[in-house]
Design goal:
The structure holds two protein chains of two kinds.
Chain A (H helix, E strand, L loop, with lengths): L3 H13 L4 E17 L2 E19 L2 E8 L3 H17 L24 H4 L3 H16 L4 E19 L4 E17 L6 E8 L7 H16 L2 E2 L3 E8 L1 H15 L2 H5 L20 E3 L22 E5 L2 E2 L6 H7 L7 E2 L15 E2 L4 E3 L6 H6 L3 E8 L10 E13 L2 E7 L1 E6 H4 L3 E4 L4 E3 L2 E3 L2 E9 L2
Parallel strand pairs in A: 7-17, 8-15, 14-21
Antiparallel strand pairs in A: 1-2, 1-4, 2-3, 4-5, 5-6, 8-22, 9-10, 9-14, 10-11, 12-13, 15-16, 16-17, 16-18, 18-22, 19-22, 20-21
Chain B lengths: L1 H15 L3 E17 L2 E19 L2 E7 L4 H18 L13 E4 L12 H13 L7 E19 L4 E18 L4 E10 L4 H4 L3 H14 L9 E7 L1 H13 L4 H5 L20 E4 L20 E6 L2 E2 L6 H7 L7 E2 L8 E2 L3 E4 L6 H6 L3 E12 L6 E13 L2 E14 H6 L3 E2 L4 E9 L2 E10 L2 E8 L2
Parallel strand pairs in B: 4-6, 8-15, 14-20
Antiparallel strand pairs in B: 1-2, 1-5, 2-3, 5-6, 6-7, 8-21, 9-10, 9-14, 10-11, 12-13, 15-16, 16-17, 17-21, 18-21, 19-20
Helix pairs in contact in B: 1-2, 3-5
Classes of the chains: A alpha+beta, B alpha+beta.
Chain lengths: ~450, ~450
Amino acid sequence: MTLEPFMKKALKICLSEGSSEVEVFGSRSRTLSLYIDDQKIKNIEEKMDQGIAVRVIKGKKVGQSSTTIASIRDAERCGQTACRLADASAPEPVMKNFTKGSRGAPVPNAYDKALASMTQEQLAQMAKELVSAASGPGEVKVPNGVIRVAVQQYMVLNTNGAETDQRSTLLYAHAGAMTLGDDPGEGNNFAFTPHLQFFDPTDFGQVLAKRAVAAQRAEHFHGKENLTVILPPHELAELIEGSAGYAMSAENVNRQRSPWAKKLGEKVASNKLTMIDDPTAEKGMSSCAYDDEGTPTKPRVLVDRGTLKGFMYDHYNAVLAGTSSTGNALRRSFNDAQNTYRDPLMISPINLVVEPGGKSLEDVVSGVDRGIMVDKLASAEANPVTGAFGLEVRSAYLIEKGEVKGTIDHALLAGNMFAALSQIREVANDSTTIRNCILPSVAFDGLELIGQ
Amino acid sequence: MMKDLLEKAVERMRDDGAEFCDARTQTIDRTAIIIVDGGVRTLSDDHMAGMSFRAKVKGSWGYATLVEGNQQAILDAASKAVHNAQAGGAEGKTIPERKPTTGTFKAKVKIHPSSVPLAEKISAVRDAERAQRVDGKVVNSNGLYREEVRHNTLVNSLGDNLDWEEVRTRLFGQAVSSDGTNTEMFYDILDGSMGWEVVKDADLVSFGQKVGREAVKMLQAKKAPSGLVTCISDPYISGLLAHEVMGHASEADEIVKQRSFLSKVVGKKVASEQITMIDDGTVERAHGYIPFDDEGTPSSRTVIIKDGIYQGYMQSLETAAIMGTKPTGNGRAQDFGRRVWVRMTNTFFDKGDQKLEEMIEDVKFGVLTEKMVSGMEDPVGGGFEAKSLRGFLIENGKVTDMLRSFTLTGSALQILQTVDAVGKDVGLDGGMCGKGIEDYVPVSSGGPYCRSKIVLGGG
């Protein structure tokens, strides 16, 4: 059975209880997850999930509720609960309706039939190839990892004409490798793709092993100096999204939490930085024709050669700011299809694309007099409000006069992400999908590295 | 009715070849209230219900999870769990028999959140939010309330047959301040495995005023010094050291595969003799309290380090079988749709005997931390990374300038060896703990004020 009857039932109940406007979001998914533990297949899991989220406007008040769906009674109860919450709430001056329905948005290539029909046995074979590629040369083992494939369906139905039904697939892999023997080094690798053809378990395993071996050879960094730092896509994505993404969210702009709130049209970054939100990207994890409110999405330049060109809006913040939603209201996640209906609507880039530069990563490295190329950080996060960061470097290549001279660890990388965006030395052309970003390695000048 | 089905599912999994299996149902009900700048931004209720079937065949596990289905669908899912385990094909140890636990257990709360009118809850959150606006420099005020009630039912092939309830309540206040040039943030939290009393017993106006006032003060904060300094970590940051580095590396699933820097240290000195560290799921009212883990094992108190000497690990059913010891009640899952593995509960350093003032008096130059932003585990390397929300400079035995957010880092074992003073009061900080970047379970971490040498930077 599809979700449609449940969604229609919830909508009908809400109208019968006096709601003037109703929005129902529905999601269904089948997820297959395989966990690797100490080189072996530890868990294989199959999860079937479906649920809805209801928002109502009733007497100028808003209420919302979500539920897993096992029966029509769940849909009724969910609608009634949303109405009950609206009754108890305070008048909401902003929300007068939900997104106006529209049709015809270009449908991105976000569904892969081969991925959607994967079996446990195929997943197990993939895991064996990954482990074999990593541990084959005999230097490392794979103590932990996950490969997850999912097929998901998202639907939106509202009383303002929105009626969307989209399907997509995802493959997410994350594994760690550690060198054998005392004082092991650890490396990690990630894969995010909506298409099976873009995931090569052998290549994934080889990269994993290389990173672990490099980490094992690292020497502790001593002293304190300012130098050039190259951040790879797998560490840069969260830093960019957590700072620039936060600053471009209209929720933070409207609430004056964004440091870029009053900088539209102004320089916020180096000329070398251009960022586009591209919901049509074939390799993007969240590509969609409509967001999770039913607003059509479209490619938008957010930062053009360092100049801030626009913010990302959902329906609420668009009304608050007197503009239109840009289709950036999402519930979905880039690595998990379960319980999407329970996740709150958040403003998010669909696929945040950092435009690649003209140089290869090797050429970028060769232009650095003294610096590091980070391989692994403890966690890649900056303070979203201030941009400040202090990041533990767990493995990085030391660069001297354009050449890699071994690896270092036990160092703290300090700086400010908003300032760093104006100190971009070079943007490489090695674009990779990480989370909901598609971005290359970027070299920043003048960051501080502190050793023990 | 549902219990009968779970029992049949267990029977089916046994018949299909599972050496061990369990069947669980779970409902999770949450109410959330978010008030931002005086307006109700979110008022939501979330209900989640589902079933999980888990089978072990040798060393591999199979799971099948459903949110709907009749008896046939449930039994098919049970068979699928066994099939999935068989597809794994790893070798493993048999989980030994034990005395079964049965019964029904209600959460021990004074005021069950379900008994409190929604209007009263909204009013309380509004009070906590409104009070933050103490100054024109508070540009954004937030009150976030969340209650969660979980009902768990578990039947397994060991004979455990359990129903239990967990209740958690949380109020979060966060103010953002700005002077036109700088922007800063401060927060405070009330929470625990408790009911509405968490909010009812608090002075919400004082709570909110403090959040607003401190956010404004932070606009004057200075950059923290960088390099190796004497640091007095507050209960939040002490807790991160206990939880993120020593705790995650003491989860026995990391030990059995030698993915922990603490794999071979039982009986060895790993810290200053002033350090005792504990994981204790029985601390009632703490955020990580659980009567049973998600395998039906009663929670327990595990002494991990005693007087600087390493004692032992946190265990699930499987890791205890592999290591030939008893499970400690640390087999936990985010929800019925996620895997069970070894997770912490309430993890903390135990109290010492010093007053904070005495610890400060002895410091010529150093830093006192206040509150955390985040931390990250490193079970392989034993590296510590924590972000402090703010801190204070200590000069010649006195607290002087306020410091804005900074990062603390270094080798956990080296830091713990340098601990020379431990405070006499333990504080616990509730939160959600992921392993890697997913599988979030409610925990708390904490400890007393601890004085050590740590590398600082950032800000």
